[in-house]
Amino acid sequence: MTTVVVAIALALVFDVSNGFHDSSNSVAALVATRAARPASAVVLAGAFHLLGPLLAGEAVADTVGSIVHVADGATTVQVAGAALTGALAWNLVTWWRGIPSSSSHALVGGLAGAGLAAVGPAAIDWGHLDGWRPKGVLGVVAALAVSPMLGFAAGFIGNRVARRALRRATRRIDRPIRRAEWVTAAGLAFSHGANDAQKTMGVMTLVLVASGHLDHFAVPLWVKLAAATSLTIGTSLGGWRIVRTIGRGIFRLRPLDGLVSQAGSAAVIWSGALVGAPVSTSHVVAMSVVGSGASHRFRHVRWTVVREMGVAWLVTLPMSGLAAVAALPLWRWLG
Length: 335
Hints:
Elements: H1 2-21, H2 24-32, H3 38-55, H4 59-65, H5 73-97, H6 103-118, E1 128-130, E2 133-135, H7 136-165, H8 174-210, H9 221-237, H10 240-249, H11 255-275, H12 281-296, H13 303-334
Antiparallel strand pairs: 1-2
């Protein structure tokens, strides 16, 4: 029982870290383009982060919760706890460095690493597609790989189209664009809550099923509320290091860039939530900003920052997996 309580508590702490790590992406453009003050942006994002997981179903939670298959309930709880420990450690390292890495990658890497160390390859669903729905590690990794490219395309094409449509507009258009940014920021926060909070919901439900507190995989309402609230708390704490990277470090966003980037990112992330694909908000938003910058001129993008983010994305899965393996003996001792 103690191990279950600690695992659930750690899942909520991970969600808080997800909030100030990944949720900062949903307010970065809004703050960087001066469409909203930081406090107002955080309130807006917090409200819609809360609504996302409550209204969006359980497709992503089901995908994440089915990655690990271990017959022994106690071992499953230990694997989940070690995975959360490794993912949380990596989140904190990349947050401190101001690098918008992926909490999704970190959690999947943690589950795979801990499952391999605890039981072996047979414990992991390595992946397949169930219709349009990705399943297992490879299915999730495929979704995580494709979504940033879609984010880049949305930023690049959307910005070109928007600039062409408004080529005769005067500077008076800035005010309605800044107002529209509030709408797209709300949509981005909602889609992020719908996708990212469900990942932790999936792990928490896995723990409850493994420990016998649930007889089948169905996310309880209190789990949805707890995950959404933790994500909102994390958002209120702010991830201003990452906001600076997204809003100014990659490319200096202007109001139209911010509007297009937020709208394109929200569409990609929400589409992932609908098909049960756990995509990375950090990846999608960052690449959408890169696409917006490249649509002006490629030299306007700070490619050294993009390269640093790319390296972080590549090493997130193995590093969080190794951190989870290192944490597994502690969870065995607790269990």
